[in-house]
Amino acid sequence: MQFRDLRTQYNVLKDEIDKEIKSVLENSNYILGEQVIELEKKLAEYVGVKHCITCASGTDALILSLMALQIGEGDAVFVPNFTYIATVSSEIIRGATPILVDIDKDTYNMSYKGLDEAIKKVLSEGKLKPKLVITVDLFGQCAEYGKIREITDKYGLKILEDGAQGFGGSIKGKKACSFGDIGVTSFFPAKPLGCYGDGGAIFTNDDSVDMVLRSLRSHGKSVNDKYDNQEIGINSRLDTIQAAILIPKLKAFVDYELDAVNRVSKHYTELLNNIVKTPIVLDEYVSSWAQYTILLKDEKQRDGLKEFLKSKGIPTMVYYPRGIHQQSAIIKMGYGKENFPVTEYVVKRCLSLPIHPYLKEDEIEFIAQNIINYMN
Ligand SMILES: *Cc1c(COP(=O)(O)O)cnc(C)c1O
Questions:
Q1: What's the whole-model pTM score?
Q2: How far, in whole angstroms, is CA 268 from its chain's centroid?
Q3: Do the Cβ atoms of 317 and 309 come closer than 8 Å?
Q4: Which residue, by CA, sits nearest to atom 1 of ligand 1?
Q5: What separation in Å is there between the alpha carbon of 241 and the centre of ligand 1?
Q6: Would you give the DSSP letter of residue 98?
Q7: Percent of the chain at pLDDT above 70?
Q8: Could you count the other beta carbons within 10 Å of the beta carbon of residue 43?
Q9: What pLDDT was estimated at residue 372?
Q10: Count of CB atoms situated within 10 Å of the CB of 214
């Protein structure tokens, strides 16, 4: 059994994917070929925004967005403390200061109360300029945008939505990656929509941000003169081969994978919700289930269950074993000295179970039965 079975998906989509790859090879249009344009159009349409700009990774999507928003030295960027490191390293790379915010105990997304307090604190200290909130749609569930937008409007901040895990999720039918002033996602193979290598995308309704981003991903080139650079950018484009792979994969994702993975999570929850703390999805939210993460009583029980499941051939992962404030690089730089009681509670107790659209019913039952056996 695999934690995320990418091979089964490939076997199902093999004919289309092979055909798409072959066509790129035959046309040799490796950089910004027509498949990239086609994919960007389809992604923008699906997410429900005007523009999609693909790039080389989710991390680059964050960095490019911060460049477009002109975030840099002296700026405070508010980020949840329980996320993948890229959410935080991107603004550090840009010279800005990350302000870590604790998480909600049920969704594990950024606590909006914590956000409000953190902004007030930065303002009262008067050293940094509050500029931006980077929200994370953790494990596939959107952050609480209604509440967060109220706060950012109050203080005049922008939102950059890190939808690397959230692609396909929604609130009242409105899709992830459409909630921020800019939204980003990642096509790392294990994400809800993955390619066969690294890739990422940026979403926005703002025409001028779209123009700037298209330039920045190609070394800041001018629109009309490729060898006159209007700004300093980077080289970050999605390979045509990856775009070609993503076209049939996006279709499968929209047609049935998102429904299938929601059936898997529902089945897990039915079998496990009296045994462990199962994931909580808010009313009118749909998750894309990047992870299905349960919470155990304490660290000992979590680690014991992980070992037990491993002995039965069931792979699990700890997403994440530490908060951002417990990462060596962050400690070294002197960030994250506040208290993060919810993060510290969750990192000791969380365990992510295998989840993907091709997980079979008998596999789900086998996993759940083993969890039940261990707990008894
Ligand atoms: C994976 C991930 C990223 C980075 O994406 P890459 O494509 O691996 O660079 C950023 N933020 C979050 C929340 C992620 O899960």
A1: 0.98
A2: 22
A3: no
A4: 164
A5: 20
A6: E
A7: 100
A8: 26
A9: 98
A10: 20
